[in-house]
Every structure is written in structure tokens, then in C-alpha cells.
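Protein in question passed on here:
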Amino acid sequence: MNLDRTPLPFSQYSAAYALPRIIRCGSNLYLAQFAFMKLLPAKYIIEQAVARGTLTHDTIVLETSSGTFALGLAVVCREYGFPLEIFTDPVMDKGLENRLRSLGAEVFIVTEKAKEGGYQRSRLEAMHARMRQLGESHFWPRQYETPDNPAAYRCFADQISELLGADVTLVGSVGSGGSTCGTVERLRQKAPGARLIGVDTFNSVIFGQLDGERKLRGLGNSLVPKNVKHELYDEVHFTSASLAFAATQALHERHAIFAGPTSGASYIVGRWRARQHPEETVVVICPDEGHRYAEAVYDQEWLRQNECVLEGVLLDAPASEEHPSTALPPWNRYRWKRKTREAVLSALEGCNGPE
């Protein structure tokens, strides 16, 4: 079947690709609520590949993803007429899988975990096997390592600068590293003192925790992405799934902002930071809306069945640890101080080593 690969007029997609709403939630607390943040890097990466000639009409796009980057690619590939194959794992919810298929993507679900790197490693291995079959006729967007991912957020940083100034405290969840690192790099071109707080979850290896099971999705990783530039972060907060889910509900109840759990995790950190530092302007990144989570995060029975109910009131402050590897649930804070990952991890080895 011949497909017209000329993209439809951008105006037909402007609502989907729009920059976030900037919502004031306190005297110095602002939320940047995206309808669908991953469309920004998906569109930018594909458009740059087309412009460079690395993505042509006879090329299949391949990617490994269990979340909304896959959906972003599906929307853009549908727009341009490129075939898309997504390699994912059983954690992908059925609703997202159905949406991908309805947009024409092929979805391959990898059911076996690798001994090291978990599903993310086994998904990569399955995708690489497919690449060998295809030879040269494939394109891999590489969201975890391509510089086009963080570069896509320059327009978001410029939006913040125009509305609030560049000297802000940016708070956001960390998965690929694109949104937080790309945005703050642009902000620091105008205001070198702009602060960055990363929000991760326990059992994610990005900032030094041991790999393990994670109930909180959309952030964290079993592998360390190249696009996470650790030396850009001033602080790192670890949140449990239960805390993030409770914070997501609180965000909806207090501000009528219907968002996903990565937004909730970042919201509670940003809210705390804004109260601790009233002189700062705090901007929290909310990556997506809550429709995918209506029958999960917003469902008390689902939370009980999955042992994700936070006992007691929503915590007002994190505990602090001397090292990220020793951080414990439900909420922990580590002063990263713009160090490399190697410097932070070796500091613990030095403390525990022989005198």
C-alpha cells in the first residue's frame, strides 16, 4: 500500500504538540502541565532524522518503550507514514497497547527478563535481533542517548524564561533525562544559577540505588541513560509508589489538575521546595494527563489490591541521607550538588573502604 508521506498541515496537530499550560499553585509554585510531553522529543527526533536523510521512505522505525514515548512516535510516524515497531514488556497497559495498534504500530511484548538490566535489557536484545534481520532499512530514535531528545525541550525552556524568567528551580521526574537536562541546560544559558531537582524512585539505578522491582512507572530505570547528565542536578529526591499516588490524588483534589503519577511525585517535591525557599520560583514538570490512570491511581480498590495505599497523612518533608544508595521509602532527599555519578558513588566506597 502506498502511503502519502507528506505530513498533514501542522495546524491539525497543534493541539497535541502544544507547549504546556503554566499554572500557578502557590505564591512561588508553578506547574507546567503537558497534555502529552513525549510528543515534543518524538516529533523533534523524527523531523531531524528526515532532515538529515537518515530516515527515508523505505525505513522502518524501531524503538523500545513501555510508555508514552512509544505513543509519541506512533502519532508522528502515522503523520509521516513511516512504519513503526515497538518492543515493550508486560508492564505496558492494555489501553496504551490498543492506542499504539490503532495508530498502525506493531507491538512486540517481551516476556522474559534479562538477568541484568531486567526487561529493559531484554527489550533491547529483542530489538537488536530485529535490526539484524532488517539490515540497513531501519531507524532507531534512541531516546536514551540521542542529543535530539534534550534539544527538543529548548522551546519549553524559552516558554519558562518568557513567563517567569530563567532563574528558576526546575523539578521533574527522571527517566531518559531528556526533559530535565535539556530544559535546565537552556535555562542556564541565561541564568547559570538556575537549579535542577531530579525526582527518581527507589530501586532505580540512575542515581545509585540497586536495581529492583518498581511499582511507580514513567521514571527510573534499570540502565543508566546517556542523556542523564548527573552533573546538572542540584538535588535528587526518591519517592515511593504509594507516596506518588497519594500526591497525584492530592494534586487533583487541591488544584483540579488531572495528571499521572510522575506528576504527583514531582508535585510533592516541588511543593516542599517552594515552602522551604519562598525566595525561589519553583516550576514542576507534569508530563501527562491522568486518563491512563483513572482505573489505577485514582481507584482506591486498585491501590489496596496493589498494596499502594499510603498510611496516614501525606508526608510534609523528606528524610535526608548521606548517600543515595542508602535512601529508604517513602521519601528521601540527597544533595547531589552537580557532581558526576562516579564522584557520588566513589564517595561511598571511600567511606566504607579500609583506613
